């Protein structure tokens, strides 16, 4: 069924928050009436961290474009069907491929978007990375597998290249899922998961990994990943005979459309206080920005996908793939700001889910 | 004081130790043992019970805290409202069951 979008991109509606400067202004206290949230750098200094230092890069994350068939209410990319201009070219992808081959520590090429599959060069790129023996992670929104007949064979394509699939399913009920991701998304997501199961994804012993991502469907933090996973496994098996490998609990970071939602719903101040109150120093060593390089559709380099969306480029001279300097990039200090509280709250949050048990 | 109930007061709950440190600390330690971790009951089940009790004792601070906790632990709206119905059913039942006492008295007094 066709997805009825709940919203439009901030860019399309000419919302002030489409400007990253405005987002940073809000994050740094413009909308807080009471006590300001302690600056993130000051908070970590209380635990003897002068900054966050990177280690060898194991994940090369590429945001291949902002085009998407969905317009989710919490999207930190501000992706949607109207974001047709920002898509990675084949030349840029080819340059990324060259770079990947020069980084011996790389274990994963993590492709995200938008809906990555909508980029015309997606399949070519996956094939090329796979030839090098590196695991491709594809952040698939599920509904793309049902969006158009030209995508129906994607499960077979993923299987043939042993692509590790990471898919968002915020909840195992229609109401919560559709409220966040658009009317009709739940139904199509369930069908897509069944398609992936049919070719072996999520099945024990198949070697085909299907992980799900849980994002809270509102202004609250994710609970224990282990507990949520057990509930998701039980409910999806019982209701739809669906299997998957791991549930990754990811906190919504207060940027882009989720920031807009927080402000519009009057939850911003309380949410920031909640993130701050839940700050857990045990998450700092496991932050994904330490071993990740994040590349945007136009080739700029960032510490993570969130910094990318705030246009906070890496703090070394090598800020673009045309000027790639591995030694400098692997020995950099991460750019921090108030949104970083999102990755350090409670058990922590990364593209791989929880960081530390609490 | 503008109101007896201010949502911001919830964050000050820990301050009760300022007036009675020993008892307050013991309470919070025990409280943590009750709610933290999956024990014989899961954290989600304990949060749903807490939500039901919050309604029964009509504590706005508790309803605030355990509505959030239930969502965080993965409970859905239907489960949360069922928990409130359980509390309401027991409150109603506990009133109605006194009807038997009333009936006993009436039967004793009347021919």
Fold and architecture overview:
- The complex is a heterodimer of chains A (358) and B (111).
- Chain A is of the alpha/beta class.
- Chain A has one domain: Alpha-Beta Barrel (TIM Barrel).
- Chain A is 34% helix and 10% strand.
- Chain A has 14 helices and 8 strands.
- Chain A is globular, with a radius of gyration of 19 Å.
- The mean pLDDT of chain A is 94.
- Chain B has one domain: AhpD-like.
- Chain B is mainly alpha-helical and 111 residues long.
- The model of chain B has no long low-confidence stretch (mean pLDDT 94).
- Chain B starts with 20 loop residues before the first helix and ends with a helix.
- Helix content of chain B is 67%, strand content 0%.
What is the overall pLDDT average of chain A?
94
Classify the secondary structure makeup of chain A into a structural class: alpha/beta
Most extensive interface between two protein chains, with residue counts: A-B, 18 and 13 residues
CATH architecture of chain B: Up-down Bundle
- Shape, per Cα inertia axes of chain B: extended
Report how far the terminal alpha carbons of chain B are from each other.
57 Å
Strand order of the largest sheet of chain A: 6-5-4-3-2-1-7-8
Biggest sheet statistics of chain A: 8 strands, mixed
Query: Count of helices of chain A?
Result: 14
Low-confidence stretches of chain A: none
Tell me the total number of β-strands of chain B. 0
Quick one: how many beta strands of chain A? 8
What integer is the average pLDDT of chain B?
94
What is the overall number of helices of chain B? 5
Cα Rg of chain A: 19 Å
Q: What oligomeric state best describes the polypeptide chains here?
A: heterodimer
CATH class of chain B: Mainly Alpha
List the domain count of chain A as a whole number: 1
């Amino acid at each position: 069924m066709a997805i009825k979008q709940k919203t439009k991109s901030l860019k399309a509606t000419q919302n002030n928050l489409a400007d990253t400067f405005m987002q940073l202004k809000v994050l740094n206290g413009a909308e807080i009436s009471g006590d300001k949230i302690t600056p993130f750098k000051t908070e970590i200094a209380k635990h003897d961290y002068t900054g966050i230092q990177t280690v060898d890069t194991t994940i090369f994350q590429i945001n291949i474009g902002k085009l998407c068939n969905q317009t989710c209410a919490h999207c930190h990319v501000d992706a949607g069907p109207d974001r047709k201009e920002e898509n990675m070219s084949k030349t840029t992808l080819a340059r990324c491929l060259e770079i990947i081959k020069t980084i011996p520590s790389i274990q994963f090429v993590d492709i995200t978007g938008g809906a990555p599959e909508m980029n015309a060069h997606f399949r070519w790129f996956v094939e090329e990375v796979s030839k090098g023996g590196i695991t491709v992670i594809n952040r698939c929104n599920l509904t793309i597998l049902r969006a158009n007949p030209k995508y129906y064979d994607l499960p077979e394509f993923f299987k043939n290249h042993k692509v590790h699939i990471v898919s968002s399913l915020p909840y195992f009920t229609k109401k919560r899922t559709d409220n966040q991701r658009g009317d009709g998304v739940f139904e199509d997501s369930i069908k897509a998961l069944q398609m992936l199961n049919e070719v072996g994804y999520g099945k024990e012993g198949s070697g085909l990994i299907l992980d799900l991502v849980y994002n809270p469907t509102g202004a609250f933090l994710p609970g224990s990943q282990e507990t949520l996973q057990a509930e998701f496994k039980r409910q999806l098996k019982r209701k739809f005979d669906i299997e998957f490998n791991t549930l990754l609990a990811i906190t919504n970071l207060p940027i882009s459309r989720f920031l807009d939602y927080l402000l519009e719903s009057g939850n911003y101040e309380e949410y920031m206080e909640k993130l701050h109150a839940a700050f857990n120093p045990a998450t700092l060593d496991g932050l994904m920005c330490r071993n990740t390089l994040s590349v945007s559709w136009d080739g700029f380099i960032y510490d993570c996908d969130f910094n990318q969306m705030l246009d906070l480029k890496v703090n070394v001279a090598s800020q673009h793939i045309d000027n790639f300097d591995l030694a400098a990039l692997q020995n950099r200090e991460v750019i921090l700001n108030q949104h970083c509280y999102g990755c350090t709250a409670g058990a922590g949050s990364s593209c791989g889910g929880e960081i530390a048990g609490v | 004081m503008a109101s007896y109930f201010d949502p911001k007061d919830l964050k000050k709950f820990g301050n009760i130790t300022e007036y009675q440190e020993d008892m307050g600390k013991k309470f919070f330690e025990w409280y943590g043992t009750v709610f933290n971790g999956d024990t014989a009951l899961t954290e989600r089940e304990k949060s749903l019970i807490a939500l039901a009790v919050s309604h029964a004792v009509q504590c706005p601070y508790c309803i605030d805290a355990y509505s959030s906790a239930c969502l965080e632990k993965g409970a859905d709206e239907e489960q949360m409202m069922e928990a409130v119905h359980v509390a309401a059913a027991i409150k109603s039942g506990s009133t109605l069951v006194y009807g038997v006492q009333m009936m006993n008295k009436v039967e004793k007094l009347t021919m």
